[in-house]
Here is the input.
Amino acid sequence: MVLGHYPEPHAITALLRLARDADDDTRDWATFGLGSMQEADTPDIRALLWQNLRDPNPAVQNEALIGLAERGDARALEHLLAHLDDDCRVYELEAAEKLADPRLLAALQALWVGAGRDSGVNGSWLGALCAAIEACGAAPVGA
Here is the structure.
């Protein structure tokens, strides 16, 4: 968990290795360290984040997506365009906010309209949705 605070090459190498560990928690923390805590943007880091976006553990997937979005990786956009639906998670909305790509607006605004019909919508999810819509260049429809 602490390695993410260190930008030195040895720390990044260790995180790259730990992000492939057999233990879910180890992969999760290492992917978080690489994706969100490191400012480094190398082909090795992006390849690892792309690999971990397909990890069987949802927490690892989430951290990988955020890391790709923070780097403006086009694969994050493709992933979001395919997954911004009624089952999307806060992490996907946070990634959409980080990408701030207008191509996500239609899907995000459709979620906003759908959320208006659902009285059981989680407040933090709705807040993340609003932030993503605004980052992508528009106010939520009907707001």
